[in-house]
Amino acid sequence: MDFLTLAKKRCSTRSFSKQPVSQESIDRIIEAAQVAPTNGNIQNFHVYVIDDENILSHVSQYAQTYNAPLVFVVTYDRSKVFKPSVNTNDSGLIDTSVVLTHMMLEATDLELGSVWINYFKQEPMGQLLNCEKDEAIAHLLAVGHANVPFKNIDRHNKERKSLKELVTNIRGE
Question: In the CATH scheme, what is the homologous superfamily, with its name and number, of domain 3-166?
Answer without folding.
Answer: NADH Oxidase (3.40.109.10)
